[in-house]
Structures are given as structure tokens and as C-alpha cells.
Amino acid sequence: MDIYVVKQGDNVDRIAANYNISVEDLIEDNQIEYPYRLAVGQALFIRGSWNGNEKETLYSFGYAYPFINSRTLNNTLPFITDLYVFSYGFTEEGNLVPPASKDDWMIAAARNVGVRPILTLTPLGVDGKFNNNLVSALVRDPSVQQHLIWELGQTMLERGFSGLDIDFEYVLAEDRAGFAQFVEKVRSVMNIFGYPVTVALAPKTSANQKGLLYEGMDYRLLGEAADRVMLMTYEWGYSQGPPMAVAPLNMVRRVVEYAVTEIPREKISLGIPNYGYDWPLPYEKGVTRAQTIHNLEAVQIAIDHGVEIQFDLKAMSPYFYYWQYGIRHEVWFEDVRSIFAKFELIKEYGLTGAGYWQLMNFFKPNWLMMESLFQIEKTTRN
């Protein structure tokens, strides 16, 4: 494979001819829509034969809501090991709360092609936000835990799930040990029935990092308690924050450097964002809110406004500016260069997985590049 960055005067015919590939392959691999316009600075995936040593195996997965487009899901399934269904909640009494939309169809779609559907458990309140009061009620009461674990087991058996993911955020510092003990208890039960248990971890860079997002997350204890962990290495740039890369590589690297001192590398998956943000400028704290956009949409915005896509070599992320209706905008997103840098980080530190938040839009170049660099892990049972 190769990555080509579009220059002034380029077109799909010229680029394809230079690489001795068909125009059709170039267009399809990069999801370039008619009339096949390109943005200067746009990064393109160029397919080719892989001539290196034996590929390392990669555990590939991603989160998806039950309202994902069926075509998007079906296009994605061949490239992943597990599908994380987002999400099931619970009450203070330990009663499991299913998603608002039916998930039967996506569970069936995954199983039909040998992909394991995974139940994702979150402490989301009625307002759709993470509720640490729910976490406290759970981890401080063994009877509530017992009831929830029983309901999880019943639901996973009845609905055909193949594993459990625990995605708790904003865990209170005083619940740090209790949360890890809960994960360990769940795993001890679920493993008996062949269900692996994973846990998502806020992106810490040190053991005693301050902040509500971090203080309840004990990397060492949770790494011991779960079968696998995913580092949520994204959302440095977020909808209500100042414009910046969603997953700047310099910050992602710091998280990985710390994680491998606390957790066995073979248990760690790197989180990768599958989206970007568009901020209106000037940014005003508490007022400005960025719009979430997908990676292809970002490129189309650059094309429509005739602006060049830049690339930040520290963050290893693409960005650009444009004007619309008298307002200047700043856009950060992911492309094949930024994702390749994350794949290289996985290899450098000996991690074994890549997890995507989220799969709601199909970004084909990502999956083709993954397939060219790794052997995607597939299970014989689901």
C-alpha cells in the first residue's frame, strides 16, 4: 500500500496512471464520488501487494448504535472481530435497561458472518449522560451487583451476545477500587460461560491524574480484572472544547506509554475515532459548539469551499479552515495518514487491538489499510 497526498492540478486519471492502478480501484477504495473532484492536501489510499514479513494479528472492533444504517454495518462487518452494541443501561436496583432501538437485527447480521456481538454496559441516565450515582449504587451494593450480573447473563444468552464490554465513565475516586472489584466479579462469572469481559478506560497519562474522568480509573487493577481493555484515546478535540485534533498522536502516545507500565500489552486495544469536528470561530468557552462530521464529509467541505487540507505533524492529524456566511470555520478529522500513524503506534508498543468509536459511517480506506497491514483476527465460534 501507499498514501498519496493530492497536489494542485492532480486528477484521478493522472494519479491512477502514476501508480499503475485502475481509476475504478482508486475511486472505489477512497469513496470518491462523481464528478471525482479532489481537494489539494487530501490523502488517498493506494492499494498494492504486501511484501513484508508475516502480518501481525489484530483484534478489530467498534461500537455501533442499533440505528446504524444496515448497508454501513454490512460493509464494516468483514473487517472486524467483534461488534460492540451500544448500549444497555441499568437502574439503581440493578435492572438491565435495553437500548431504545431494537438491536436484534444487528446481532443476527454479525453472527451470520462470524462476527461476535458484544453487549456494551453503560451507566447512562435518562438524560443520556453518564451518571456516576448509578455507578456508586452498583459498586457499593453486592446485592445490586448480583442482580445485574444475573440479568446480564440471561440477556446475553437469550439475545445471542458473545461477550460483555463495560464502559463506565466519570467514576468517582472513592469508587476506584469498588469498580475494579465489580469488573473482576463480572469476569469470574462470565468466563465460566465462555463470555470474555472487556473494559473501556479513560485516557490517563499517570496513576494519580486529577479530574473526574480519570480518578476512578485504576489501570493496574482494571487491567488485572478484565480480559481486555480499550484505551479511549480520543476526544481531546471535542464538541464543546476549543478546536484541536480529536486524537493527537503526541497525546495518544503519552497514554500508551503509561498504559503499558500498568497493563500487559497483549490485553490493550487502542481507541481510534471515526469522525471529526467542525468549529465556528472565534471559539468562546461555554458558547461555541462544534458539529460532528464524518471523515468523508470533511473532505467534501474542503472541496466545496476550494480550500487546501493541511496536516499537523505533531498531532499527525489533518485540518483546514473555510469561510461560510461570513463565519470562519476550523475542521479537524481523520484520514489515512492519521490512522496509519496510530497503526504504527500499535506495532511500536506491541498492542494487539484497535477499537473504533464509532462505526456509524463507513470509511473504507481505513479498513483497506488495516487489512494491508494486519491479519484481522476472526473467531471460529460466536
Question: How does this structure look, described?
Answer:
- The structure is a single chain.
- The chain is an alpha/beta fold and 382 residues long.
- It is built from twelve helices and 17 strands.
- The chain has helices spanning 12-19, 23-29, 70-76, 104-112, 132-139, 142-159, 176-190, 219-225, 249-262, 295-304, 336-349, 364-373, and strands at residues 2-5, 43-46, 56-64, 82-90, 96-97, 116-121, 163-166, 197-201, 228-231, 268-273, 276-280, 291-293, 310-312, 317-324, 327-332, 353-357, 374-376.
- The chain has an eight-stranded parallel barrel, surrounded by five helices. A five-stranded antiparallel beta sheet has the order 12-11-15-14-13.
- Helix 7 (176-190) links the parallel strand 7 and strand 8.
- Helix 1 (12-19) crosses helix 2 and helix 11 runs parallel beside helix 12.
- The protein starts with a strand and ends in a 6-residue tail after the last strand.
- The mean pLDDT is 96.
The amount of helix comes to 25-40%
**Backbone CA Rg:** 21 Å
Chain-averaged pLDDT? 96
Low-confidence stretches: none
How many strands? 17
Distance between the termini: 31 Å
Q: What fraction strand?
A: 15-25%
**Helix-strand category:** alpha/beta
Enumerate the strands of the largest sheet in spatial order, edge to edge or round the barrel.
Answer: 3-4-6-7-8-9-10-16
Number of helices: 12
Largest sheet composition: 8 strands, parallel, barrel
Order of helices and strands: EHHEEHEEHEHHEHEHEHEEEHEEEHEHE
Characterize the overall form: globular
